[in-house]
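Allow me, if you will, to draw on your knowledge of protein folds for a short while. Thank you for your consideration; the sequence and its tokens are set out here:
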Amino acid sequence: MTKARLLRLSVVLVSIFMILLIIVYWDNVGTAHFYLHTSFSRPHSSGAIPGITAGEDWEALPDVDEFLAKLLSSNLKQNSSISRKTEQLLVQGSSKPVVSNLEENVRGYDWSTHNAQNSLDQEKLQIERQRTLREFCANSSFTFPTKERSFDDIPNYELNHLIVDDRHGIIYCYVPKVACTNWKRVMIVLSESLLDQGVPYRNPLDIPREHVHNTSTHLTFNKFWRRYGKFSRHLMKIKLKKYTKFLFVRDPFVRLISAFRSKFELENEEFYRRFAIPMLKLYSNHTNLPTSVSEAFGAGLKVTFSDFIQYLLDPRTEKMAPFNEHWRQVYRLCHPCQIDYDFIGKLETLDEDAAYLLQLLKVDRLLRFPPSYRNRTASSWEDDWFAKIPLAWRQQLYKLYEADFVLFGYPKPENLLKD
């Protein structure tokens, strides 16, 4: 009698488990036309599961992870024909960029074919960037906050910058002020996560900025918990092993200058109310400030770069709330010591890096990376911007962003840190 009950209980539990897996499968695959290109950093045989390296890493996966990975990959052949049709449509619609407004009216299109020598140089560059990152992540003498924690220790809300494209097996960690608007556009086109009159966008430049930065547009890791519950971390780890992961970075001090210019030198109502008013009160001793940014600018009341640096260095700032994403350190946005990135791009070499990355992702036939503004904030401007900032502040600021300088191979700005 007892054995019969145990048998029935086992059947019920297995049935419930299978139902949950089917729900996960259809949520993740059935509605997204799951389709993976082979990850350039994860070679595999024709019999292996696409994107997963055969050998010890795969063997070491827990049973649940292994089963979910196989389940997520089982629909690959069925959807490949759909993806090929989509590719043909995208190619037809991406021959020319469509400039929709003055802000996107950019010049300097580069449709040139990148030759083999350039690809070889890019490959060497990637090896060097990844080597630098991994060496300092493994270097016990180089420390910074959160370095030693594991991926499981990262709370879900800190994974909101990891955008997932299940169609092509891509994960992009976006860093504000590092061409993230256009990279988000590329991810929208690839994942078909946004429609225009019932049809997916084919040209990145057609996508309005207000849609690009709408959080509901993108599938990010922090949304997994609501979709998959207790399976969310399993799925994240599987995707991190299977998918191609990339990010773009920038000289940390230049990124700060760019953030200051766009958020405090231009009229931005949100940033005026959330950040400029407190800065003007705390560091410029202003009282009775206008409630709108247009009134403040009309009265000549603007945050100075000095105010901004004081705000970043003030220990009270992060006691109130974490840094805004536009000036939060990259290591806090993208967790490079917990996530093994396959590609590290830099804004300083954006055109070359973007073209090479799209080739490696095997999506260069679908779209081209949108051309960028020519008047990017130049690193040569650092001396002028920091000229009136006291030496002690500059040294403190470097310590605050030192991990980003070191991990991503940016030279220490000695000219700013000495008399």
Observations:
- The CA atoms of residues 295 and 301 lie 9 Å apart.
- The mean pLDDT is 80.
